[in-house]
Amino acid sequence: MEQSLSQPVSSAWFLATGRVIDCAERPLIMGIVNVTPDSFYDGGRYADPGAAVAHAVALVEQGADILDIGAESTRPGAAPISEQEEIDRLIPVVSAAARRVRLPISVDTTKARVAELAIAAGASIINDVSALRFDPGMAGVIARSDAAVVLMHMQGTPRTMQQAPHYSDVVGEIREFFRERMQVAEQAGISESRIVLDPGIGFGKLLVHNLDILAHLSSFAMLNRPLLIGVSRKGFIGQLVDRPAAEREWGTAAAVALAVDRGVQILRVHDVAMMADVVKVACAMRRRAATRQEHYA
């Protein structure tokens, strides 16, 4: 652990509709609420609005700091849905959740109109897996609202992203992508203080690419923005442990612990209670290692 402690740490806060989201004390846990029939792990389980809101409340009780609600699956090979279908699935859940919980609500969407309605319903973060590329109106919607935005890296689209992705230097190429997308966001009127970055584990990456990203997470600190990681039950973990999505919680825990040690600020997970424990232990170990490092310096 001590080696990673010498690496720089990303910015430990961001703004979302005027609210300071502080990640300095410990990484924040973003609980996943999929209002979809076809997500790779829990598709269909929370498609009913009442079930989705109950799940959101349960995640808060388990220790979530942020809720991330999505109505369109972005699993590998997923087909897009219409704007109206996404609105019909998503907005009732966002509106009801905003009345029930006081935590920041993030919405996972690439569509400007969906984002606009979600913000009006109570969302304060737009988690855009396209990093403002798929809908030319998205940047303007976010800029006018003062919502935060998560800019995620992905090669291709969810339908095509796993068709032979290729990189010469995956970490370096993602860093350059982030610089370019941050510039686009700022030119549209989204201040740097409202930007969070996500290297997109599993989005247009092979196993070796995902491992390289995880091994070099601290290299993204030079961009000085909070880093979000989504490793929960993903396919690369299945490749490593040879288990289906329903049995990948321990592999997820290992990846989450590594991410904490590498200075990640936000962890997007399905299993909030379990990963909250992982974060507590990993943070305690990291702090103790830092103390010992100072003692022997």
From TrEMBL:
Signal peptide: none annotated. It catalyses: (7,8-dihydropterin-6-yl)methyl diphosphate + 4-aminobenzoate = 7,8-dihydropteroate + diphosphate. Pfam families: Pterin_bind (PF00809). One of its GO terms (cellular component) is cytosol. GO terms for biological process: folic acid biosynthetic process; tetrahydrofolate biosynthetic process. Its cofactor is Mg(2+). Residues 27-280 form the Pterin-binding domain. One of its GO terms (molecular function) is dihydropteroate synthase activity. The keyword Transferase applies. Pathway: Cofactor biosynthesis; tetrahydrofolate biosynthesis; 7,8-dihydrofolate from 2-amino-4-hydroxy-6-hydroxymethyl-7,8-dihydropteridine diphosphate and 4-aminobenzoate: step 1/2. InterPro entries: DHP_synth-like, DHP_synth_dom, Dihydropteroate_synth-like_sf, Pterin-binding_dom. Keywords: Folate biosynthesis, Magnesium, Metal-binding, Transferase. Catalyzes the condensation of para-aminobenzoate (pABA) with 6-hydroxymethyl-7,8-dihydropterin diphosphate (DHPt-PP) to form 7,8-dihydropteroate (H2Pte), the immediate precursor of folate derivatives. Belongs to the DHPS family. This is Dihydropteroate synthase. The lineage of its organism: Bacteria, Pseudomonadati, Nitrospirota, Nitrospiria, Nitrospirales. The gene is folP.
